Amino acid sequence: YKAKFDTTAGAFVIEVHAEWAPHAADRFYNLVKNGYYDSGRFFRVVPGFMVQFGINGDPAIQKNWENATIPDEKVTQGNTRGFVTFAKSSAPNSRTTQVFINFADNSRLNRDGFAPFGKVISGMEIVDKINSVYGQQPNQGRIQAEGNAYLSKSFPKLDYIKKATIEK
Asked: Above 90 in pLDDT, residue 168?
């Protein structure tokens, strides 16, 4: 399936391949389909590395997902430019809702179990334009606790997802 992201920077499309990472593909589908990513900020943007999103702007909604982990999966694709992967901690089976898009060849992530489940097939030039002025400054704990209110006040120039939809 394909997921279209209409953002403040423009639109891009991710093509998801369930055979690459079935648990990730299923989770991503459900999050997109149910509007989870809508109004979500691109809160971590590291040029030459990746752009990350996936903390809901409403702390009440986010709280429902913080322990909803999905199992780790075998890495079948490389973390190279345009490939999309769920973020995780060093703990096993720690993926939840946060994903990132690789800006470059980040193959070193493969050995750490970051399993890509999709790839940007159009609009990678839009992904490249996502505002990186704040880098990794936004505090993820505060985003989870305070949502978009915190981000809008402290990081007003963050780009965000207007709407994400599943396309056939």
From this structure: no
